[in-house]
Amino acid sequence: MPAKDRHHDAVIRALQKAGWSRITEQVAIVLEQRRLWIDIKAGKAEQSLTILIEVKGFEGGASPVEYLASAVGKYIVYRAALEYLRIDLPLYMAVPEAAYRGILSETIAQQTLRHNRVRLIVFDPEREELIVWID
Fold first, then answer.
1. Where is average pLDDT lowest: 3-12, 54-63, 116-125?
2. I need a surface site. Which of 3, 12, 28, 70 has the fewest CB within 10 A?
3. DSSP state of 125
4. Is 40 helix (H, G, I), strand (E, B) or coil?
């Protein structure tokens, strides 16, 4: 299993504060001989909602643009695998508010996210709260 992003647990607590339940962590998606790991599967039972979430801290990496390319690329690969396997669950990328106000607010990121239909959950890692959902 891959290592958790440093914000993984903060996202889980933020989801719980917002009324979501953690169904499982490190969700294995198996496509032939490849195993992909999506960070979180969460649900809201009263609304019959289930979602998958990939947590990205947008920290480290060679540059913010390199991190953006890597994060969006991974998201696209995961979404393609889900579609191929006919797993009809929405996939979100959870990002900290600093990344949302930083690289993700720039034109290159906005165009990339829009073009690739990336769904975002923006969270505050300090307060462990969800700030905005972008479908």
1. 54-63
2. 3
3. T
4. strand
Determine what percent of the chain is predicted with pLDDT higher than 90.
Answer: 90
3 state DSSP class of 133: strand
Residue 13 lies in a domain: yes
Question: Domain for residue 3, yes or no?
Answer: no
What confidence tens digit (pLDDT) does each residue in 28-45 have? 999 999 999 999 999 998
Put simply, whether the predicted model's pTM sits higher than 0.85 gets the answer yes
Residue 70 falls inside a structural domain? yes
What CATH number has the domain bearing residue 111?
A: 3.40.1350.10
Q: Judge whether 81 and 30 are in contact, CB under 8 Å.
A: no
Structure token digits, residue 95: 């990002």
Q: Which of 113, 115, 62 is nearest to 92 (CA)?
A: 113
**Nearest CA among 129, 131, 132, 134 for reference residue 10:** 129
